[in-house]
From TrEMBL:
InterPro entries: FAD-bind_Monooxygenase_sf, FAD/NAD-bd_sf. This is NAD(P)/FAD-dependent oxidoreductase. It comes from the Bacteria. Pfam families: Pyr_redox_3 (PF13738).
Length: 500
């Protein structure tokens, strides 16, 4: 049973029902903060793993690490899980948690404004208004598809859709298909649809590094051990975590350490592609790690197929039935798939959140970029907590680890408020500035800044406000305690307006 009529007031309003929203709901309930509501614009839980159902959709983080630490999944079928398994896992966790009676689906947040007089967030949704003491955003950075600004794309007469909004009613069999983009989604889509289509044009702006995907089905013995021997499951998870944590972050600041991975990427090309011209097109010219490193065993072989053309000339325009490149070549198509990623440095929810003084989060961030304190709170926005906020993204490990670290920090803030009678907590400007100055100083020596590429990690100011530049265990340690000394703490007011 889920919420059918929205409550007028709640202590905590959580936006989004993906990993962040589900985890937050469970931990709020465990902490005795039972007066909460989770709103989700979709019709069920799952977040990005519910929305992204394109062919071949799968995770590039090993299965054993891609789950809540407090809700391990003993039933993964393989070492890297496909989208249906991850969605089913999240649905099962939510159902078993006993919190779904506080979830409202098909409920989109339209606007949220901090009211100083009542010391509450006043939130408008598509199903009514809610007043909340705290606003916790779990909308994430992979929720709003990024559409390309291409002349004439609105005039295309065939089927066109974003990879994150895949139209399963469209049969691609025997069709001429164009895919724009060569990111994580595209390298899963292309091998999945290539055998069925008549012809596929893949439009590449920058060649990605693609290393082999060490994926396999678990054996029967492994599945039995993982299911019935918790110590084995914990050991497997620990080994995967430290395997990634000790290697990948190191080459972010010293590209020489990336030599084995770079060699594997080049070998991946050589194994599948014999044509020298195509090899040259797919070979990156920047440092490994500057852009997201992808994993696939089938991408390059799909590109080498007779019915696939890799197009590296810039797109000039789209007509009613074709794509025209800058060299004047017109390539007729029936279906256009846009695989151009998400709005990560300008999270759309920021437009709808107005803090102290009525300024929106997007207006504040437009001046200096997406800046917050510990990726979770923001000066000028009391009692606003963001899960998967600024500089919390990863290129090597599980975001679930980061989310759990942030959830613990939020719970610490709530305990501080409850134990001391505070109505609101808000990070002070000085600690927030110091936090971000330190992050950007560390960014200067990373491959993301020095690697010779432009990526979706960087915002309009040229700053990396997306990724975390240190070890994940460092992030957890820094968020292990709610540091009230770096916050403005507002007492609860009486009805007359004086402190209680």
């Amino acid at each position: 049973m889920t919420v059918t009529t929205l409550p007028q007031t709640v202590d905590h309003l959580v936006v989004g029902a993906g990993f962040a929203g589900i985890g937050m709901a469970i931990k709020l309930a465990e902490a005795g903060e039972g007066d909460f509501l989770v709103i989700e614009k979709d019709s069920g839980v799952g977040g990005t793993w519910r929305a992204n159902t394109y062919p071949g959709a799968a995770c590039d983080v090993p299965s054993q690490l891609y789950s809540f630490s407090f809700a391990p999944n003993p039933s993964w079928s393989r070492s890297f899980s496909a989208q249906p398994e991850i969605e089913a896992y999240l649905r099962g966790v939510a159902e078993r948690s006993g919190t779904l009676d506080r979830f409202a689906f098909e409920t989109e947040m339209l606007d949220a404004a901090w009211d100083e007089a009542s010391q509450r967030w006043h939130v408008r949704t598509t199903r009514g208004d809610v007043v909340a003491r705290t606003l916790i955003s779990g909308s994430g950075g992979l929720s709003a598809p990024k559409l390309p600004d291409i002349e004439g794309i609105e005039t295309f007469q065939g089927e066109v859709f974003h990879s994150a909004r895949w139209n399963h009613d469209v049969d691609l069999t025997g069709k001429r298909v164009a895919v724009i983009g060569t990111g994580a989604s595209s390298i899963q889509i292309v091998p999945s649809i290539q055998p069925a289509v008549a012809h596929l044009d893949l439009y590449q702006r920058t060649a990605p590094y693609v290393i082999p995907r060490s994926d396999r089905r678990y054996t029967r013995i492994e599945r039995l051990l993982l299911k019935h021997v918790p110590a084995v499951r914990r050991a497997y998870r620990t080994a995967v975590y430290w395997g990634r944590e000790t290697y990948v972050p190191a080459f972010v600041v010293d590209p020489r350490i990336a030599a084995p991975a770079k060699k594997a990427a080049r070998a991946n090309i050589a194994k599948a592609i014999t044509d020298p011209e195509l090899r040259a097109k797919v070979t990156p010219t920047y440092a490994l790690g500057c852009k997201r490193v992808l994993i696939s065993n089938t991408y390059y072989s799909a590109l080498a197929a007779d019915n696939v053309d890799l197009v590296t000339d810039p797109i000039a325009k789209v007509t009613g039935d074709a794509i025209v490149t800058a060299d004047g070549v017109e390539r007729p198509i029936d279906v256009l798939v846009v695989a151009t990623g998400f709005q990560t440095t300008e999270q759309p929810i920021a437009e709808h959140i107005r803090g102290r003084g009525g300024r929106s989060l997007s207006q504040v961030w437009a001046e200096r970029g997406m800046l917050s304190y510990k990726g979770t709170t923001t000066h000028g926005f009391p009692n606003l907590f963001q899960l998967v906020g600024a500089n919390t993204g990863l290129g090597h490990s599980s975001m679930v680890f980061m989310i759990e670290s942030q959830i613990a920090y939020v719970l610490g803030a709530l305990r501080t408020m409850k134990d001391n009678g505070y109505a609101a907590v808000e990070p002070r400007q000085e600690p927030q500035d110091a936090w971000n100055a330190d992050l950007q100083q560390r960014m200067k020596r990373t491959v993301w800044s020095q690697g010779g590429c432009s990526s979706w990690y960087l915002d309009a100011h040229g700053r990396n406000t997306t990724l975390w530049p240190r070890a994940t265990f460092t992030f957890r340690k820094l968020l292990s305690r709610f540091d009230a000394e770096n916050y403005d703490l507002t007492p609860v007011r009486t009805t007359e307006g004086a402190p209680a």
